[in-house]
Structure formats: structure tokens, C-alpha cells
Amino acid sequence: MLDIDALQRDLQARAPRAPIRRVETHVSWVLLCGAHAYKLKKPVRLGFLDFSTLEARRHACEEELRLNRRLAPGLYIDVVAVRGTEQAPRIGGEPGPVIDHAVCMRRFPDGALFSERLVAGSLSPVYVDRLARRIAAFHEAAPAADPASAFGTAEADEAATRQLVAGLEAEAGAEALAPLRAWLEAEAARLRPVRQARRAAGRVRECHGDLHLANAVVVDGDVVAFDCIEFDPALRWIDVMADVGFLAMDFVAHARPDFAYRFLDGWLERTGDHAGVAVLRQHMVQRALVRELVARLRRAPVREGPDYLAVARALARPGDARLLIAHGVSGAGKSFVAQRLLEAAGAVRVRSDVERKRLFGLAALQRSAIRVPGGIYDEDATRRTFAVLRERAQSILEAGHPAIVDAAFLRAEERAAFRALADELGVPFAILHCHAPVHALRERVEQRWRQGRDPSEADLAVLERQLAHQEPLTPAERPFAIDVDTSQPLDVAAIAARWFAAPAGPRAAPIALDGAVPGGSPDDRGRPTGG
Q1: Residue 191 — φ and ψ, nearest 5°?
Q2: Class of the domain covering 323-524
Q3: Is the pLDDT assigned to residue 369 strictly greater than 80?
């Protein structure tokens, strides 16, 4: 075996000004040397990989370079040869026999990983949003699995899950895994038709495969994901929701469920793959078990990081499906409140402004008047938009997640249709009634239109028509309303608590939540720029 200590000493002798640091996992060494990092594969053979030969390690290095350049081209430089002897290895220098290979990477600053920034309290929501957009674009561009392959089939996934659980049982004991094994087997059987349909629809793609918080990094103000799975194609040719579920799970494991659902919301806004929420919980549990197995295989004398086995058990509990629809004219702050509420409550949102544009092939921030001469706001487009909102809300609720439908809902018949959906599914129903003084509405709409950074295209003329023709909540609807004056400080935790106070069951009883929301803590306070 190559003497990694000797290689580190050789690099240190040639670059004496800064100490060479070494990071070690159960399958690799990384030597941090000045502006570069050199990653070498350990000559190991495990149940899920085989790096035991020189040729296998060379191929793995070349695959690592090729695959990671998809998401992090600025980090991955080349594959370099290690020459000399196992007792005196070197990178570079005089020609000689090749004894190993290393991936040469650009070194990023200490503290730049998402995992490190979370600990330091410096992971901005802006970075979460950027990663969501980047991963969504990556997934949309990735090739779909060949239907003739075994990648992503229900049978292959179930076999991989059984192998994963067996590996953990060898480490933690069968008794500790018994409830999770039963849950995973039941979910596999229940979701088999869904998984097969998603594969047929092209949602099994060549993904990242190992998208956790220590594999996402902020570099020069940009956000990239790196260190994808290179050693086993079956572990990266997966349902795109498996990638999403991995990162969401890790945010939850690190006590930031708000970031988990913010990331999910950003990804869904770009992809529109709300149907994938059906398999999200299953993937989150599986990925928690993957991280638990990795942690145990490291054999560290002191266990660091989350208890992923406990995370898996928590995620496998039943969901708390319930439906909330927003209500209010443009500029009332509906989207502002909905964004914070989905983070606080662990909810999944579907947004009318985004889905309407998606129907016409437009991105969220594209102006429709420029690209769709006939417009996208006639009665037929509105009818189609609300049909999409209903379909997506139903898929979210049937998957056991709280759903927020972010639309104006200015017509009583629109609101009645979604209350009927909640009754049909036997889930609680509530109305998020957002409002503000008219002068504030006008200021927000004008500012939003001028900035052009929101999917809404409502201008002052649209606002005036809405004010003149909106249908107020009826006496029968008022008991279901959570009343929010968005010109006042917001207590998002109180709004979430009131929403979750609604009882479950068909024709859910009113929640009697009318009244202004009191001011919250400074961390919860904020004012919207639009609705």
C-alpha cells in the first residue's frame, strides 16, 4: 500500500511555507497543499466499491473528474500520476513508474462547506436558494435512464435498500433496525407503482448521488456541489427526488428543517415536479440510513455529527397533511408569509404565478407579454392554472405533507373548490387571509413591478381591478381564516401554530383563528414587498 505519510512529507518538503493537511475517510485520503487538494483512493474492497487495483483507482479518478465537472467545473482540474515507489511516492517531478493516481482539485477556503457554515451560523438563505436553482437546472439537463437498463427500477431499489439495512444490522443489531426495515418494506410495496411511473416518465436520471451538507460549498460567492458518486453508476442513476431528499434530510438532521423546506421549495419552483413529493419521505429515510452506515464504517473513537438512525426513525413517522390556501389582492404579502410559513411548518407550496407561466413554457421571472402575444391571464388560462394547483396540492396531501396553495383566491368558487378537496381527502382546511392598507398595497406592487424579481406580473391597474371586483370571505368562510395584517410585525410561529390547531377529518371544524397576529420575536419579524 502507498505510504501516505511519505507522500505528505514529500509535498511538505517541496512547499515548506504552509503545513500540508490531511483529511481521511474510510475510502480516500485528501492532501491539502497550498492552492490545491490531491484526492487519492485507498486500495480497499468493500461491499459497495472495489479500489483494490491500480487500474480500478485510475478509472475511478477519471470518472470522478468527468462527473464532478458537471456541477463543479471550477474545482476539478485534472487526474495526476503518483510515481516513485510505495515507500517514496511523489506527485510530479522526474518521470518514473506510475504507482497510483490522484484527482487534483482547486482548494477552497476552510469553513466554506455548508456543514461548516451551519455550525458557524453563516449559511445564508441566499446560498440555499442558489443551490436549489443549481441542482434543479442540473437535474433538468441530466440524461434520463435508458428504459432497457436496471437503473432506478423498483426491484433494484428494493434490493439496494435491503442491502443497506443488512449492512446497518451488522453494525447496530437487527433489533435496532426492525421497525425501520418493516416501514421501508411497506413503503416499497405501496410506492412501487409510483416509482415505476416516475421511471417511465424520465425522472430517473444521472444525478449526484451523495448530496449532503459536506458536499456543498460556497466558493467566491457562488454555490457548487462536488464529490458525487463515481464508483457505482447504480448509486447515481436514481430518481431526482433521491438527490433532493438527501440534502433535505441532512438539513433536518442538523436541526434546520426550515432550510430543508426552503431548498425543496426552490427546487420545485424550477422543476414543477410536485408529483415527486410522493417518494420524498422514503428517500429521506433511506439517505439517513446511508449516512448512519458511513458514520459507523469510519470507526471513529468519538462519534461526531447527527444521530442519523434517530433521524430516520423520526422521518418514518406519519405525516400531518393539511391544506392552507392564501387569499388576498396583489401586494398583500401572501407569498412573503407563505415562504416563511412553509419553512416554519415543514410545508410544501405550489404557487399560481409560477404554475401559470409554466403552462406557457415560461420561467418564473420571464415577462409573459414579451413572449406570449395573446397573454396568459384570460379565463381559460386561469381555469387551467387552478386545475394544475389542485392536482399538485392533492399529490402533496396524499403524500402526507402540509400543503400551501399560494394564489389570490379572490373568487368564492375558487376557495370552495379547494375546501372541497380538503373534505374529499379528510384533511384540515384553513385560509391565510393577508391584507394591508391600500397605500401599502400600491407601494409594494409598484416597487415589485419596477424591480422585476418576482414571478407576479400584477401592476397598479391589475391591483385596482382586484380591489374593485374581489369577493370577500363569506360568513361561512371566516371561521376558517387566519387573519394577517402584513403591515404589522409577523409572528410566523404563531401563524403556524394556529394553522396546525385545525382538527383533522372530513368537513373539518372551523378553527376560529380570526384576528390580527401579534408581533413576534425580532427573528420572526419582517414586512413583505409583495403578495
Answers
A1: -95, 0
A2: alpha beta
A3: no
Tell me the three cell numbers of residue 181.
426495515
Look-up of cell digits 440524461: 143
Confidence of residue 527 (pLDDT cuts 50, 70, 90): very low
Q: What is the mean pLDDT of residues 432-444?
A: 97
- Tell me the backbone φ, ψ of residue 89, rounded to 5 degrees: -80, 160
Cα separation, 93 vs 18, in Å, equals 20
Asked if pLDDT for residue 368 goes beyond 90, the answer is no
pLDDT at 81 over 80: yes
Parallel, antiparallel or unpaired: strands 45-46 and 204-206: unpaired
Scan for cell 462519534, then name that residue: 303
Residue type, 127: Y
Measured distance CA(3)–CA(85) in Å, rounded: 9
- Beta carbons within 8 Å of 53's beta carbon, 6+ residues apart: 43
From residue 261, give the alpha-carbon distance in Å to each of 187, 223, 265, 345, 401. 22, 18, 6, 9, 11
Confidence of residue 373 (pLDDT cuts 50, 70, 90): low
* Mean pLDDT of all residues belonging to the chain: 92
What three-state secondary structure class fits 53? Answer: coil
Helix intervals (H) in 142-202: 154-172, 174-200
CATH hierarchy code of domain 114-315: 3.90.1200.10
The domain ranges of the chain are: 4-106, 114-315, 323-524
